[in-house]
Design goal:
By secondary structure, the chain is α/β, with parallel strands linked by helices. Helices cover about 45% and strands about 25% of the residues. It is built from 28 helices and 26 strands. Helix 3 (about 50-60) packs parallel to helix 4 (about 75-85), helix 5 packs antiparallel against helix 11 and helix 13 (about 340-345) packs across helix 14.
């Protein structure tokens, strides 16, 4: 049929006209970058910085394609779409927007947007959509030319009706089909003969019959007739094995009455003859709206409900619980070690793992429960009322057990655990956000105490969290207000009775609590990353206190400074410490650093390399609190360690425990065997000192010799020692 109306020249002339594209976006950089990409394929690209400018340009010239943002000043993208629809402007609009509101996106579809891309988007997909739109436009233009040439031809009318994608029908006075076009077969699966003579109500979806009674068999004319009413039409089953299987196709209906006009006695008399209607298939639009709605309320990876749906269901569950005075449970789930797996195998495998985790968790919950993915490796489970604490524990145990079995990723067994925090409504809170926060807080408590378990929220957790926040805030002020201070505890040699070294100890002069040792604040300092600023302050303070004073410089002794795991993990840590000694003119041999065993356990190779760099420059390395960490003996052979310090907890057991005394003896013997210096911490009485001397440990630190001193008192003690030595040598 088509070839009989269109010549070869006419068919190919449509490719001669350049494609005009209008890019509308208030983000200048986004607009310009998109224009540059588009100009690789199409030359005629015009830009508009807002909806008002776009409407002005549209009024001036014709654009094949309009690429439109939704949220813009002056006039929004919705207003531009409404203008195009109202003026019936022939163009294709593709929406590019960061807008996530389901209502906004649905409205854009209703206003005639051809396609919608959410920022950020793939340009390849956008280019594909543009080419599809141009192809569609060319087909429509070709069809329009055919219609124009045959406007006065009966053949054209028949062609238009029979080839229309829409169902076109005429009803007689009784509401029976007197005419239907060929599209009825494609649209509903019926032959034309199946409908002719049948009453329209047989083909209306049951739920729409009342509405169709006044709309499908329309009697009004022209502007008074109905416009774009949505109905459902029954489809004929195409499966012989399911003759009673009836599906419904959504259509958009336009209909109006048909009247004949007779002239009697110079008066025009209109007589109702039937109804003319056009039904357009809107299945694709309905599917798009359904998909958009699904995306708004579900996580696209796992297909689980997302935070929006969870909050909605939680709100309903709480209202129900209030009415029945029953409890409900909220669980916050976070996968343990997921980041390690994601980094090791890549995000594609990480996503696969999340999907499999979601499937396993779903298998362990009831039909009425809601499992949602909040993002990343975080999930939340709502157990609606009635749910007891005992039931919640049982569910938590089942969830943990379900993930114990290995996952197979790229033919490798992977194990993953889960930490679960549980909050109870209304015991823990009657507020949605607070309830979720409390479950989250309980989950982090599990994380901090070993992971792979569950716990219920407790008020103490909130108090602990509040105290952490208070400490962090206080530490930041402490750096600003000069509340930090260094105390110096001498290290004595029991043979020479002399000070042979000193340890720099950090203290916080808390404005309300007084002096606080690092045990009070160091953990929070590391969590909040303030520790690096504090360590830098300590190094600078020690340099100013000691290495600018002749009393210390003349003594020849060494100062030891405690560093944190965060300091060691810094990539340029060794180089920065060496630079520090050079800037202050410090002999590296006069400086020692103390680290705990746990600091180097996470990455022994990297730690060994960094410490070796420092050792090669003359800075000594001491293991503090020796014996309280992990398998230290294996690592002493690898690490460049010069000194081990016996923890005060072992020294205090010398007099009270044979095992404690034996352990101290073993540590001393091991150090001597490896040629490592040894210092005993926390020596408080002569009995402890004598025992240590008997083992050959002669360097001690503790209240028996001196408590930590402020810098002036320490330097005076050093000077007094030097004076005594001078007198003895004289």
């Amino acid at each position: 049929m088509e070839n009989s109306f269109v010549t070869f020249d006419e068919k190919n002339s449509r490719f001669d006209k350049p494609v005009s594209i209008l890019v509308v976006d208030d983000d200048e950089r986004a607009r310009e970058s998109l224009s540059v990409l588009l100009k690789r394929q199409w030359e005629d690209i015009t830009e508009a910085e807002d909806g008002e400018v776009a409407i002005s340009l549209i009024q001036q010239r014709q654009f094949k394609i309009i690429i439109l943002d939704l949220n813009m000043p002056k006039k929004s993208g919705d207003q531009v779409l409404a203008f195009i629809k109202e003026k019936k402007i022939n163009t294709t609009v593709i929406v590019l927007s960061g807008e996530t509101s389901i209502n906004k996106v649905t409205e854009a579809v209703r206003l005639g947007a051809y396609d919608i891309f959410k920022k950020p988007y793939s340009f390849d997909e956008l280019e594909h959509a543009i080419r599809n739109a141009l192809d569609k436009s060319r087909i429509e233009e070709e069809k329009a030319r055919i219609q124009n040439r045959l406007a006065h031809s009966e053949q054209l009318h028949r062609y238009m009706v029979d080839n229309s994608p829409d169902l076109i029908y005429i009803l007689n006075l009784r509401g029976e089909f007197s005419f239907v076009n060929d599209s009825v077969t494609k649209l509903l699966g019926y032959d034309k003969s199946d409908l002719l003579g049948m009453h329209y109500s047989h083909f209306i979806a049951d739920e729409d019959r009342m509405k169709a009674e006044y709309l499908f068999n329309e009697r009004r004319r022209a502007s008074r007739s109905n416009q774009t009413i949505e109905l459902g039409l029954k489809c004929n089953s195409t499966d012989p094995s399911k003759p009673f299987d009836v599906s419904v196709r959504p259509i958009e209906l336009n209909s109006m009455g048909i009247y004949s006009v007779d002239v009697n006695d110079s008066k025009k008399v209109s007589t109702y003859q039937g109804t003319y209607g056009v039904a357009r298939d809107i299945s694709s639009r309905k599917k798009a709206e359904k998909l958009i709605t699904f995306q708004a309320y579900h996580d696209l990876l796992t297909k689980l409900p997302n935070r929006v749906m969870l909050l909605d269901r939680l709100d309903l569950a709480i209202k129900q619980s209030v009415r029945t005075s029953e409890t409900l449970i909220v669980m916050f789930l976070d996968l343990d070690r997921f980041k390690l797996i994601n980094d090791s195998f890549g995000h594609v495998v990480g996503d696969q793992l999340l999907v499999e985790v979601a499937d396993r968790l779903k298998d362990e919950i009831r039909t009425g429960d809601t499992l949602a993915r909040l993002g990343g490796d975080e999930f939340m489970l709502l157990l609606p009322q009635p749910t007891t604490r005992e039931q919640a524990e049982s569910v938590a145990q089942k969830l943990i057990a379900s993930l114990r079995q290995p996952f197979f990723l790229r033919n490798k067994e992977v194990y993953i655990n889960v930490s679960i925090g549980i909050a109870v409504f209304p015991d823990d809170s009657a507020d949605i956000n607070t309830l979720i926060k409390n479950a989250d807080m309980a989950m982090y408590e599990v994380k901090s105490t070993g992971k792979n378990g569950y716990t219920f929220y407790d008020d103490k957790l909130e108090h602990a969290a509040a105290e952490k926040i208070s400490i962090e805030s206080g530490l930041r002020n402490a750096l600003k207000n000069n509340e930090l201070e260094i105390f110096y505890q001498p290290q004595y040699n029991s043979l020479s009775r002399r000070i042979v070294g000193v340890e720099a100890l950090l203290r916080w002069n808390h404005p309300h609590l007084g002096l606080r040792a690092p045990g009070y604040f160091i953990e929070q300092a590391e969590e909040s990353r303030i520790i690096q600023q504090i360590s830098e302050w300590v190094l600078n303070r020690v340099a100013q206190d000691l290495f600018n004073d002749a009393r210390f410089l003349d003594s020849g002794m060494k100062v030891s400074i405690n560093l944190s795991a965060s300091d060691i993990r810094q990539r340029d840590f060794p180089e920065n410490l060496v630079t520090f000694t050079e800037n202050f003119g410090i002999d590296p041999g006069r400086l020692g650093i103390e680290i705990t065993e746990n600091m180097f356990m996470s990455d022994i190779q990297a730690c060994t390399h960094k410490l070796q760099v420092l050792s090669n420059r003359g800075i000594s390395i001491a293991i503090d609190d020796f014996g309280t960490g992990y398998s230290s003996l294996n690592y002493l052979r690898e690490l460049p360690v010069h000194t081990v310090k016996i923890d005060y907890s072992f020294v205090s057991e010398i007099e009270h425990s044979r095992k404690g005394a034996a352990l101290v003896a073993a540590i001393v013997g091991m150090a001597h065997g490896l040629g490592i210096d040894i210092i005993a911490e926390g020596v408080e009485n002569a009995s402890q000192s004598e025992y240590l001397e008997g083992l050959g440990c002669h360097t001690m630190q503790g209240f028996l010799y001196s408590k930590p001193l402020r810098v002036d008192k320490f330097l005076n003690a050093v000077a007094s020692q030097q004076n005594i030595i001078s007198k003895l040598s004289g």
